Amino acid sequence: TQQVTLAFDLGPTREIAVQIHSVITAIGIKMEGLECHVFIGGTPLSQDKTRLKKCHIAVGSPGKISAPFNY
C-alpha cells in the first residue's frame, strides 16, 4: 500500500508552522502510525522530499511546502 500525504497545513511563518505541528502531534498522539512533519527553512531539499513521501500531514510555510514539487 502506498502512503500519501493527506493534508497540507500552511503557516505564514516558521514559528507558527512549528506551533501548528506541535498541536497536531499532541492531538494525534493516540493515532497509531500518524506521521506529521514540519517543513521549515534550514533543512535540505532532499530530506524534505523524502519526508513528504512518508507523512500524512505536512505543515510548513508556503514556499517550503511547495519546494519539493518545483525541483
Description:
With 71 residues, the chain is an alpha/beta fold. It is built from three helices and three strands; from the N terminus they run βαβαβα. The chain has helices at residues 14-27, 45-54, 62-70; strands at residues 7-10, 36-39, 57-60. The protein has a three-stranded parallel beta sheet with strand order 1-3-2, sandwiched between helices. Helix 2 links the parallel strand 2 (36-39) and strand 3 (57-60). The longest helix is centred in the first third of the chain and has 14 residues, at 14-27. The chain is globular. The protein starts with 6 loop residues before the first strand and ends with a helix. The mean pLDDT is 87.
Question: How do you describe this structure in short?
Answer:
The protein contains 3 helices and 3 strands; from the N terminus they run βαβαβα.
Question: What's the structural blueprint in terms of helices and strands?
Answer:
Elements: E1 7-10, H1 14-27, E2 36-39, H2 45-54, E3 57-60, H3 62-70
Number of helices: 3
Question: Unreliable segments (pLDDT under 50, ≥5 consecutive)?
Answer: none
Percent helix, as a range, is 40-55%
Question: Element order, helices and strands?
Answer: EHEHEH
> What is the alpha-carbon Rg in Å?
12 Å
